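Hi V.,

You were right to ask for the full record rather than a summary. Here it is.
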Amino acid sequence: MITKRIIPCLDVRDGRVVKGVNFQGLSDVSSPVELGKFYSDSGADELVFYDITASSEGRRLFTDILTEVARTIFIPLTVGGGINTLDDFDRVLKCGADKVSVNSGAIRNPRLIFEAAKRYGDQCVVLSADVKRVDGVFRVFARGGRENTGMEAIEWIKNGVALGAGEVVVNSIDTDGVKQGFDLEMLDAVCSAVSVPVIASGGAGGIDDFVTLFKTLPRVDAGLAASIFHFGEVTIPALKAALRENNIPVREV
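Predicted structure:
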Protein backbone atom coordinates (compact mmCIF):
# COMPACT_ATOMS: atom_id res chain seq x y z
CA MET A 1 0.00 0.00 0.00
CA ILE A 2 1.27 3.48 -0.88
CA THR A 3 2.20 5.45 2.21
CA LYS A 4 0.75 8.89 2.84
CA ARG A 5 3.30 11.69 2.89
CA ILE A 6 3.65 14.39 5.55
CA ILE A 7 5.19 17.55 4.14
CA PRO A 8 6.20 20.66 6.11
CA CYS A 9 6.23 23.86 4.08
CA LEU A 10 8.74 26.68 4.43
CA ASP A 11 7.25 29.96 3.20
CA VAL A 12 10.36 32.11 2.79
CA ARG A 13 10.48 35.90 2.55
CA ASP A 14 13.74 37.89 2.63
CA GLY A 15 15.60 34.74 3.64
CA ARG A 16 13.39 33.92 6.65
CA VAL A 17 10.50 31.50 7.16
CA VAL A 18 7.23 33.39 7.69
CA LYS A 19 3.59 32.44 8.27
CA GLY A 20 0.29 34.28 8.01
CA VAL A 21 -3.47 33.69 7.84
CA ASN A 22 -5.35 33.61 4.51
CA PHE A 23 -2.04 34.64 2.87
CA GLN A 24 -2.02 37.88 4.91
CA GLY A 25 -0.26 39.26 8.02
CA LEU A 26 3.07 37.44 7.69
CA SER A 27 5.20 37.02 10.82
CA ASP A 28 8.78 35.82 11.19
CA VAL A 29 9.29 32.20 12.30
CA SER A 30 12.83 30.90 11.82
CA SER A 31 15.82 30.23 9.59
CA PRO A 32 14.90 27.98 6.64
CA VAL A 33 18.19 26.10 6.96
CA GLU A 34 17.69 25.28 10.65
CA LEU A 35 14.01 24.45 10.21
CA GLY A 36 14.64 22.31 7.12
CA LYS A 37 17.25 20.23 8.95
CA PHE A 38 14.93 19.83 11.93
CA TYR A 39 12.13 18.47 9.72
CA SER A 40 14.46 16.19 7.82
CA ASP A 41 15.73 14.74 11.09
CA SER A 42 12.17 14.48 12.52
CA GLY A 43 10.84 12.11 9.87
CA ALA A 44 9.19 14.44 7.34
CA ASP A 45 8.71 12.68 4.01
CA GLU A 46 9.44 15.72 1.87
CA LEU A 47 10.03 19.43 2.27
CA VAL A 48 8.53 22.31 0.30
CA PHE A 49 10.38 25.63 -0.03
CA TYR A 50 8.35 28.57 -1.40
CA ASP A 51 9.95 31.96 -2.03
CA ILE A 52 6.55 33.55 -1.49
CA THR A 53 7.23 37.08 -2.76
CA ALA A 54 9.41 36.29 -5.78
CA SER A 55 6.47 36.41 -8.21
CA SER A 56 4.78 39.49 -6.77
CA GLU A 57 8.13 41.32 -6.64
CA GLY A 58 9.02 40.23 -10.16
CA ARG A 59 12.38 38.72 -9.24
CA ARG A 60 14.13 35.38 -9.35
CA LEU A 61 14.10 32.99 -6.42
CA PHE A 62 16.83 33.24 -3.77
CA THR A 63 19.29 30.49 -4.64
CA ASP A 64 21.96 30.88 -1.96
CA ILE A 65 19.61 29.95 0.90
CA LEU A 66 18.01 27.25 -1.22
CA THR A 67 21.38 25.64 -1.89
CA GLU A 68 22.16 25.60 1.82
CA VAL A 69 18.78 24.03 2.66
CA ALA A 70 19.23 21.34 -0.02
CA ARG A 71 22.71 20.54 1.30
CA THR A 72 21.39 20.13 4.86
CA ILE A 73 18.40 17.83 4.33
CA PHE A 74 18.11 14.18 3.31
CA ILE A 75 14.55 14.09 1.98
CA PRO A 76 13.06 15.19 -1.38
CA LEU A 77 12.82 18.95 -1.82
CA THR A 78 10.19 20.80 -3.87
CA VAL A 79 10.91 24.43 -4.65
CA GLY A 80 8.66 27.21 -5.97
CA GLY A 81 8.40 30.98 -6.29
CA GLY A 82 9.34 33.09 -9.31
CA ILE A 83 9.53 30.09 -11.66
CA ASN A 84 8.80 31.56 -15.08
CA THR A 85 11.16 29.90 -17.56
CA LEU A 86 13.04 26.68 -18.25
CA ASP A 87 16.17 28.51 -17.10
CA ASP A 88 14.48 28.96 -13.70
CA PHE A 89 13.83 25.21 -13.57
CA ASP A 90 17.44 24.53 -14.46
CA ARG A 91 18.81 26.94 -11.85
CA VAL A 92 16.65 25.56 -9.03
CA LEU A 93 17.39 21.93 -9.87
CA LYS A 94 21.11 22.69 -9.92
CA CYS A 95 20.72 24.14 -6.41
CA GLY A 96 19.56 20.71 -5.21
CA ALA A 97 15.79 20.69 -5.70
CA ASP A 98 14.17 17.39 -6.67
CA LYS A 99 10.92 18.90 -7.95
CA VAL A 100 9.93 22.37 -9.11
CA SER A 101 6.59 23.96 -8.30
CA VAL A 102 4.98 26.32 -10.83
CA ASN A 103 2.09 28.65 -10.16
CA SER A 104 1.96 32.22 -11.50
CA GLY A 105 4.55 31.46 -14.20
CA ALA A 106 2.38 28.63 -15.54
CA ILE A 107 -0.72 30.84 -15.46
CA ARG A 108 1.08 33.37 -17.65
CA ASN A 109 2.53 30.69 -19.92
CA PRO A 110 0.88 27.25 -19.63
CA ARG A 111 3.36 25.82 -22.15
CA LEU A 112 6.00 26.12 -19.43
CA ILE A 113 4.47 22.99 -17.87
CA PHE A 114 4.68 21.08 -21.14
CA GLU A 115 8.22 22.20 -21.94
CA ALA A 116 9.51 21.47 -18.44
CA ALA A 117 7.88 18.03 -18.34
CA LYS A 118 9.39 17.24 -21.73
CA ARG A 119 12.89 18.29 -20.64
CA TYR A 120 12.97 17.08 -17.01
CA GLY A 121 10.16 14.51 -16.80
CA ASP A 122 6.63 14.99 -15.46
CA GLN A 123 7.69 13.69 -12.02
CA CYS A 124 9.74 16.89 -11.68
CA VAL A 125 6.89 19.31 -12.43
CA VAL A 126 4.47 20.21 -9.63
CA LEU A 127 1.47 22.41 -10.37
CA SER A 128 0.67 24.55 -7.35
CA ALA A 129 -2.78 26.15 -7.43
CA ASP A 130 -3.90 28.86 -4.99
CA VAL A 131 -7.68 28.49 -4.97
CA LYS A 132 -10.44 30.55 -3.35
CA ARG A 133 -14.21 30.49 -3.58
CA VAL A 134 -15.60 33.52 -5.38
CA ASP A 135 -19.42 33.62 -5.52
CA GLY A 136 -19.48 29.88 -4.93
CA VAL A 137 -17.00 29.06 -7.72
CA PHE A 138 -13.44 27.79 -7.21
CA ARG A 139 -11.19 30.44 -8.75
CA VAL A 140 -7.42 30.38 -9.34
CA PHE A 141 -5.40 33.19 -7.81
CA ALA A 142 -1.93 34.32 -8.91
CA ARG A 143 0.92 36.38 -7.43
CA GLY A 144 0.89 34.73 -4.02
CA GLY A 145 -2.90 34.78 -3.71
CA ARG A 146 -3.13 38.50 -4.51
CA GLU A 147 -4.71 38.40 -7.96
CA ASN A 148 -7.93 36.71 -9.08
CA THR A 149 -7.25 35.27 -12.53
CA GLY A 150 -10.93 34.60 -13.13
CA MET A 151 -10.09 31.03 -14.18
CA GLU A 152 -12.17 28.15 -12.85
CA ALA A 153 -9.78 26.11 -10.72
CA ILE A 154 -10.75 22.51 -11.52
CA GLU A 155 -10.49 23.08 -15.28
CA TRP A 156 -7.15 24.84 -14.84
CA ILE A 157 -5.76 21.96 -12.79
CA LYS A 158 -7.04 19.39 -15.32
CA ASN A 159 -5.38 21.38 -18.09
CA GLY A 160 -2.09 21.58 -16.15
CA VAL A 161 -2.04 17.82 -15.65
CA ALA A 162 -2.83 17.27 -19.35
CA LEU A 163 0.16 19.46 -20.20
CA GLY A 164 2.44 17.26 -18.08
CA ALA A 165 2.31 18.22 -14.39
CA GLY A 166 3.06 15.05 -12.43
CA GLU A 167 1.68 16.26 -9.11
CA VAL A 168 -0.75 18.92 -7.86
CA VAL A 169 -0.61 20.99 -4.68
CA VAL A 170 -4.02 22.44 -3.83
CA ASN A 171 -3.63 25.51 -1.62
CA SER A 172 -6.98 26.58 -0.19
CA ILE A 173 -6.82 30.33 0.49
CA ASP A 174 -10.13 30.07 2.38
CA THR A 175 -8.65 27.70 4.99
CA ASP A 176 -4.99 28.83 4.95
CA GLY A 177 -3.70 29.40 8.49
CA VAL A 178 -7.22 29.19 9.96
CA LYS A 179 -6.51 25.76 11.54
CA GLN A 180 -10.05 24.44 11.18
CA GLY A 181 -9.28 21.53 8.88
CA PHE A 182 -8.40 20.93 5.25
CA ASP A 183 -10.77 22.06 2.50
CA LEU A 184 -12.32 18.64 1.84
CA GLU A 185 -14.86 19.85 -0.70
CA MET A 186 -12.19 21.49 -2.84
CA LEU A 187 -9.82 18.52 -2.54
CA ASP A 188 -12.55 16.04 -3.44
CA ALA A 189 -13.30 18.00 -6.60
CA VAL A 190 -9.61 17.98 -7.61
CA CYS A 191 -9.13 14.26 -6.83
CA SER A 192 -12.16 13.44 -8.96
CA ALA A 193 -10.73 15.44 -11.88
CA VAL A 194 -7.11 14.17 -12.10
CA SER A 195 -5.23 10.90 -11.70
CA VAL A 196 -1.85 12.29 -10.55
CA PRO A 197 -0.90 12.63 -6.83
CA VAL A 198 -2.76 15.42 -5.02
CA ILE A 199 -1.26 17.23 -2.02
CA ALA A 200 -3.63 18.98 0.40
CA SER A 201 -2.50 22.35 1.70
CA GLY A 202 -4.15 24.91 3.96
CA GLY A 203 -6.14 24.47 7.14
CA ALA A 204 -4.42 21.87 9.30
CA GLY A 205 -4.97 22.70 12.97
CA GLY A 206 -4.07 19.40 14.62
CA ILE A 207 -3.49 15.68 14.22
CA ASP A 208 -7.22 14.95 13.82
CA ASP A 209 -7.34 17.08 10.68
CA PHE A 210 -4.82 14.79 8.96
CA VAL A 211 -6.72 11.69 10.12
CA THR A 212 -9.96 13.15 8.76
CA LEU A 213 -8.26 14.13 5.49
CA PHE A 214 -6.91 10.67 4.70
CA LYS A 215 -9.97 8.79 6.02
CA THR A 216 -12.43 10.97 4.10
CA LEU A 217 -10.39 11.32 0.92
CA PRO A 218 -8.15 8.26 0.53
CA ARG A 219 -7.14 9.49 -2.93
CA VAL A 220 -5.24 12.42 -1.38
CA ASP A 221 -1.56 11.44 -1.39
CA ALA A 222 -0.09 13.91 1.09
CA GLY A 223 -0.85 16.55 3.69
CA LEU A 224 1.15 19.75 3.73
CA ALA A 225 1.23 22.18 6.65
CA ALA A 226 3.33 24.99 8.04
CA SER A 227 2.42 26.78 11.26
CA ILE A 228 1.35 23.75 13.32
CA PHE A 229 4.78 22.23 12.68
CA HIS A 230 6.72 25.52 12.95
CA PHE A 231 5.26 26.38 16.35
CA GLY A 232 5.49 22.87 17.78
CA GLU A 233 1.74 22.35 18.03
CA VAL A 234 2.13 19.03 16.20
CA THR A 235 5.30 16.96 15.90
CA ILE A 236 5.82 14.70 12.92
CA PRO A 237 6.58 11.58 15.01
CA ALA A 238 3.35 12.05 17.01
CA LEU A 239 1.35 12.70 13.83
CA LYS A 240 2.68 9.57 12.14
CA ALA A 241 2.01 7.47 15.24
CA ALA A 242 -1.61 8.66 15.27
CA LEU A 243 -2.02 7.95 11.56
CA ARG A 244 -0.70 4.41 12.01
CA GLU A 245 -3.15 3.89 14.92
CA ASN A 246 -5.91 4.82 12.48
CA ASN A 247 -4.64 2.30 9.89
CA ILE A 248 -3.33 5.03 7.60
CA PRO A 249 0.00 3.87 6.10
CA VAL A 250 2.97 6.19 6.64
CA ARG A 251 6.74 5.82 6.33
CA GLU A 252 8.54 5.00 9.58
CA VAL A 253 10.15 7.96 11.35
